[in-house]
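Annotated sample (chain length 195).
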Amino acid sequence: MNYGIADLKEATKRLEEAVKHIQPEDVDMYVRLVRNIATQIKNDFWAEHVEGTPVVIQPAASNKNEYRLINTLEFLYKPMFFNNVFEGREIEYYCKERTEELMESKAIDAHNDFWKDHDIIFGTVYGSLPLELLTKDAMGRLVRCGWKKTNVDILEPRRDLDDNQVRALAEQKFRHYIIIKEKETKTFLILRYHF
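Output written by the structure step:
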């Protein structure tokens, strides 16, 4: 269901009534509803009116033997609608919102369990997890919050590359990626996101 401004006004009116009548559970519910509707309106607006930087999709296969494709998995990711994570406080707000959405959808444990098995070296994606770790209910809730599905290539760089060389390779080849180091095997992996 696509929400519009009228839905946002109605949700805000109901929130105001819940505050007026001191109904804590309803206040929480309407705050989440207002946030979700506003996020959807923003996502729809950006999709329709804001042009993104054109992306050249690089093939996953490397003809220079720099890396090899191990697998492709479906992930859910939280889109970012700001260009520079180092300017302002946008990344702080984004991370707070991401954590709240993961907690509300009961997906925070799956998210944390997945990421604690890996050291994150560097990346350009700040909210994602494999679809196979989510319940249908959690996935549905995250999608309603604006999270999107994408395919992610799991790439293994050559073993003789250090972390700086792996980072340079990823920066040169891909726009959306996370470089991780598996704690158990000490192997670098590049998660290359298709969006």
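Annotation: Helices lie at 5-20, 24-49, 90-104, 108-116, 136-144, 163-173.
Annotation: The radius of gyration is 19 Å.
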